[in-house]
Design goal:
Number of helices: 7
CATH class: Alpha Beta
Strand order of the largest sheet: 3-1-2-4-5-6-7-8-9
CATH topology: TIM Barrel
Number of strands: 9
CATH superfamily: Aldolase class I
Oligomer: single chain
Strand content: 15-25%
Helix content: 10-25%
Radius of gyration: 18 Å
Distance between the termini: 19 Å
Number of domains: 1
CATH architecture: Alpha-Beta Barrel
Largest sheet: 9 strands, mixed
Shape: globular
Structural class: alpha/beta
Length: 252
């Protein structure tokens, strides 16, 4: 996401909210880059009207990152104010993202509060932080970093043992080499036994139709079906649409 997009997606926090919390205490607060309402463009929740909560900060520096503006800055917000902003959009779907949201320790408490209020919550995480910190009611969309992300050494492989059928593993594919690496992980680590698997073409680096062709040629999918839409353990090609949706909207 570019700065052009960022300027239109800034969190709508009133002055009274910002001044109502003491700057001397950060208890019950998180540093937030933005909160916005859009259609989910990735993962299994694609197409659903969702509220996105983007937390500030990330320890990784992936080559394809489109949210570098979330590395620094942001505003401190109390959980109560975050929840009030989420409720304003009147949708049950919430996506907590970053940066790396779990890099902020109090993110786990926010996830609990969102779930307790009945929201259907997903978490986009790099796979470099212990995902057991996140409530299991949350659909944890966990990256496995590929070689061309230049963060493959950051993969915390012990996270695989924390996954449930409610979760998702995502590979962002930057090249054919990345695809071959990801395909090898599927076999060597029996990844389809954990949860749904998503292959996402890196923006501007891999043509989505090429990725779809590789997946179909190699017969990646369930043992009993090669459908991309209806079986547990399927391999699904997904294309990041959040940026596309924004610029299409601006042209109207």
């Amino acid at each position: 996401m570019t700065d052009r997009t960022r300027n239109n997606y800034n969190v709508h926090m009133s002055d009274s909210q910002g001044k109502s919390r003491s700057s001397k205490s950060r208890e019950g607060m998180l540093k937030i880059t933005e909160i916005f309402h859009s259609l989910q463009g990735e993962a299994l929740q694609v197409g659903l009207p969702s509220v996105f909560i983007r937390l500030t900060g990330c320890p990784l520096r992936c080559t394809y990152c489109d949210s570098e503006y979330a590395f620094y800055g942001g505003e401190w917000m109390h959980f109560d104010d975050i929840l009030a902003e989420v409720r304003r959009y009147e949708t049950p779907y919430v996506c907590v993202t970053g940066g790396e949201p779990l890099a902020q320790k109090r993110c786990a408490e926010l996830l609990i509060r969102l779930c307790d209020e009945g929201f259907k919550v997903s978490l986009e995480t790099s796979g470099a932080v212990d995902i057991s910190l996140a409530d299991r009611r949350v659909s944890r969309v966990m990256d496995l970093k590929t070689p061309e992300s230049r963060e493959v050494s950051s993969n915390l492989w012990s996270n695989l043992d924390q996954l449930t059928k409610n979760d998702q593993i995502k590979f962002v594919i930057c090249s054919r080499t990345d695809y071959e690496w990801a395909r090898a992980q599927l076999t060597e680590r029996d990844l389809t036994s954990y949860c749904e698997i998503l292959f996402s073409p890196a923006w501007g680096l891999v043509d989505p139709s090429d990725l779809a062709g590789w997946i179909l040629r190699d017969r990646l999918g369930c043992a009993s079906s090669y459908s991309f839409t209806s079986c547990y353990g399927a391999i699904r090609p997904v294309h990041s649409r959040n940026i596309d949706l924004w610029f299409q909207h601006k042209k109207q």
